[in-house]
Q: What sequence folds into this?
């Protein structure tokens, strides 16, 4: 077997055999296949696709390229959640204590932000003292203590994906349903959970720009999960505007605190409720409640202090600091340094969410390269969202930097320009998309 023949087979639109895929993944992992051949095959996959069987084999081989967790200390059915990424996506820090309050134990491995989508690990790191580098051998201790643990992705989990993703990033081969689906599912399968709930974001601030693409990705991941013996549900959520009122690390964690203390934004509550519902059902901790009763119970727990108590446990167990009033202490204080005002009167028609993400990165909230340092206090607050009425001169957004930021003024103005490009104002009220666009089981 050799790589040249495998590349030619995919170039000529043939299905790759299990042996060919295995040869490829093993060669990527042990470094025996040069990057130029790997890149050529990736491009052939982007152009000619993969069938379900190939996708599943690729996923399982990538999952098997490193350590695979089994989570024996989780009582009952283990579950996991994954989002395909977005702007203002603060769901995980709310979801973990919420489902833990129903007795759903969870080990959550999360990534750092790269490009315009934020990373959950960075968000937790904006709490003073919070340790996200948990050794896998200590997971059971946290699960016994609080029912949950959050940690950065360990380097030995699906290493083939890490190598492939880095190459895809620089060879224009990220946008491919088989490659995205296998990348995500290999990490989920290696992380060990039996049930997986996927938040497939859809819109200008997501990988999948329209509903049909998001559905295709969701269906591909569900099929892979099923063939790999996992139960998978996908919730397609709207990313044609940022989720909630803030993006940026401390700003989002402040919004998380508001949500777990009963003051959440309706779109955040809606997404969290839908995802929690499926996770609790899959884990069989729903106590026979109907969908309506369970969703009402979820919402009630966000406002009656139940989730807040679990949230405090999560933070304290991983070394995070709380002040005397029970609120997290953050590593940076956001400073409201500029408001972007509406040039016109009318209704917000749309918000190009990728531009909002880019503006947030310019302010320092995200990274363009893995080694970039982030400003935890930086980000954006949204005074108005799609469907809201504005008058000329009203504030659309507030731009924040950390209190000690040395951000050059020209970057602040570049961020302002991006926001003015992002907001489309028109004369009539637009049709507002719901936060949940579909559920695929
Ligand atoms: N997230 C991943 O983990 N992999 C992809 O390919 C895209 C998004």
A:
């Amino acid at each position: 077997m050799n790589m040249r023949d495998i590349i030619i087979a995919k170039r000529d639109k043939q299905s790759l055999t299990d042996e060919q895929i295995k040869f490829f993944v093993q060669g990527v992992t042990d470094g025996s296949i040069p990057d130029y051949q790997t890149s050529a095959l990736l491009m052939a996959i982007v152009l000619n696709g993969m069938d379900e069987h190939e996708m599943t084999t690729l996923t399982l081989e990538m999952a098997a390229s490193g350590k695979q967790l089994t989570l024996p200390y989780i009582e009952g059915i283990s579950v996991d959640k994954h989002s395909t990424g977005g702007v203002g996506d603060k769901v995980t820090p709310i979801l973990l204590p919420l489902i833990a309050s129903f007795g759903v134990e969870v080990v959550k491995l999360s990534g750092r932000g790269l490009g315009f989508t934020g990373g959950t690990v960075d968000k937790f790191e904006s709490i003073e003292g919070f340790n996200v580098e948990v050794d896998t051998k200590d997971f059971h201790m946290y699960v016994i203590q609080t029912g949950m643990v959050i940690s950065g992705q360990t380097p030995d989990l699906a290493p083939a994906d890490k190598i492939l993703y880095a190459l895809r990033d620089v060879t224009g081969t990220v946008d491919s349903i088989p490659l995205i689906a296998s990348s995500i599912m290999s990490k989920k399968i290696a992380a060990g959970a039996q049930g997986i709930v996927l938040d497939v974001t859809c819109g200008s601030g997501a990988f999948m720009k329209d509903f049909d693409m998001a559905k295709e990705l969701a269906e591909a991941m569900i099929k892979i999960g099923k063939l790999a013996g996992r139960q998978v549900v996908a919730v397609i959520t709207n990313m044609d505007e940022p989720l909630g009122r803030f993006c940026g690390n401390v700003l989002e964690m402040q919004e998380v605190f508001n949500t777990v203390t009963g003051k959440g934004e309706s779109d955040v509550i809606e997404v969290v409720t839908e995802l929690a519902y499926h996770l609790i059902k899959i884990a069989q901790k729903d106590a026979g409640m109907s969908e309506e009763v369970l969703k009402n119970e979820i919402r009630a727990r966000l406002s009656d202090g139940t989730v807040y108590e679990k949230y405090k446990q999560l933070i304290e167990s991983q070394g995070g600091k709380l002040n005397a009033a029970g609120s997290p202490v953050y590593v940076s204080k956001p400073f409201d340094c500029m408001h972007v005002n509406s040039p016109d009167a009318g209704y917000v028609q749309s918000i190009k969410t990728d531009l909002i993400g880019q503006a947030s990165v310019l302010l320092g909230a995200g990274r363009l390269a893995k080694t970039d340092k982030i400003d935890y206090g930086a980000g954006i607050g949204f005074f108005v969202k799609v469907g809201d009425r504005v008058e000329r001169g009203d504030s659309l957004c507030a731009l924040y930097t950390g209190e000690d930021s040395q951000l050059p003024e020209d970057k602040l103005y570049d961020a302002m320009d991006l926001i003015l490009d992002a907001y489309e104002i028109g004369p009539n009220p637009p049709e507002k998309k719901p936060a949940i666009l579909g559920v695929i089981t």
Remarks:
- The domain at 3-49 is CATH 1.20.970.10 (Transferase, Pyrimidine Nucleoside Phosphorylase; Chain A, domain 3).
- The chain has a mean pLDDT of 95.
- Residues 211-227 form the longest helix (17 residues).
